[in-house]
């Protein structure tokens, strides 16, 4: 595990980050003094059961929630110093989210989901050829004219992943991106994420309870009761 040093050397760095909900007897500490450094171009897993604090970690890492204490930097930028507009722009330009609810627009076909992204971020996205190749690799290229309601959970999951990759973000934060996939699809998605991280220098952080991805990750952390610990050796032997 890398000892915390200069945050500008990392795609994502956390220093003693906590998140507390409620107060008094109802107070719950969802994240307890989390510290980590994630280098550029790494595929990183945060493994843990439901309720362990993984989703809180992810939303705080992406600036969707504010920590109770501690410091978070993305590419060396302390995100607590950013205005709401600057933080929105950072997320739009540099962060791709894959949320557990898939977050696909229900009345748009797969093809239209990407046109919507183009209307918000018209430059710097994958070309049409690159998008077609990505959809084919994920096994959803035949669904271009399909609505989310006519897709399985696994298909929605892969379309949501493709949408996150479409903007060519420098950091991807994914919440349970393989939970609805069989082992063959998990290997396909995991290998794709590994290749994107290593060849495109994209940093990918996956929070999950799915240990099937662990052998493909560069770093593995474990989350339990809000406590983050390094555990790569447990999975790479």
- Global mean pLDDT: 90
The CATH architecture assignment turns out to be 3-Layer(aba) Sandwich
| Envelope shape | globular
Range of strand content: 15-25%
Task: Describe this protein with a few key phrases.
single chain; globular; 7 helices; six-stranded mixed sheet; alpha/beta; four-stranded antiparallel sheet; Rossmann fold; 32% helix; 237 residues
What does this structure look like?
This protein has 237 residues and is of the alpha/beta class. It has 7 helices and 10 strands. The protein has one domain (38-63, 90-235): Rossmann fold (3-Layer(aba) Sandwich), CATH 3.40.50. Strands 6-7-8-3-9-10 form a 6-stranded mixed β-sheet, sandwiched between helices. The radius of gyration is 17 Å and the shape is globular.
In short:
It is built from seven helices and ten strands. The chain has 237 residues and is an alpha/beta fold. It has one domain: 3-Layer(aba) Sandwich (Rossmann fold).
Topology:
Blueprint: E1 12-21, E2 28-38, E3 43-47, H1 54-61, E4 69-74, E5 77-78, H2 84-94, E6 95-98, H3 110-120, H4 128-137, H5 153-166, E7 171-175, H6 183-200, E8 203-208, E9 219-224, E10 227-230, H7 232-235
Parallel strand pairs: 3-8, 3-9, 6-7, 7-8
Antiparallel strand pairs: 1-2, 1-4, 4-5, 9-10
């Amino acid at each position: 595990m890398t000892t915390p040093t200069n945050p500008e050397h990392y795609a994502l760095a956390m220093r003693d980050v906590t998140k507390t909900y409620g107060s008094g007897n109802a107070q719950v500490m969802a994240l307890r003094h989390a510290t980590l450094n994630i280098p550029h171009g790494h595929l990183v897993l945060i493994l843990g059961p439901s309720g362990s604090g993984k989703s809180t970690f992810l939303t705080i890492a992406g600036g969707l929630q504010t920590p109770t204490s501690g410091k978070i930097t993305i590419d060396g930028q302390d995100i607590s110093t950013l205005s709401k507009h600057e933080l929105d722009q950072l997320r739009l330009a540099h962060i791709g989210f894959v949320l557990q609810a898939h977050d696909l627009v229900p009345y748009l076909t797969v093809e239209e989901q990407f046109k919507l992204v183009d209307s918000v971020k018209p430059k710097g996205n994958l070309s049409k050829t690159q998008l077609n190749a990505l959809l084919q690799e994920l096994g959803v290229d035949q669904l271009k004219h399909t609505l989310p309601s006519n897709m399985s959970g696994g298909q929605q999951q892969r379309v949501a992943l493709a949408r996150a990759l479409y903007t060519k973000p420098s950091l991807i934060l994914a919440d349970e991106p393989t939970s609805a996939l069989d082992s063959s699809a998990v290997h396909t998605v995991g290998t794709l994420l590994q290749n994107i991280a290593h060849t495109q220098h994209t940093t990918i952080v996956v929070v999950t309870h799915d240990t099937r991805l662990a052998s493909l990750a560069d770093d593995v952390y474990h989350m339990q009761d809000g406590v983050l610990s390094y555990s790569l050796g447990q999975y790479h032997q």
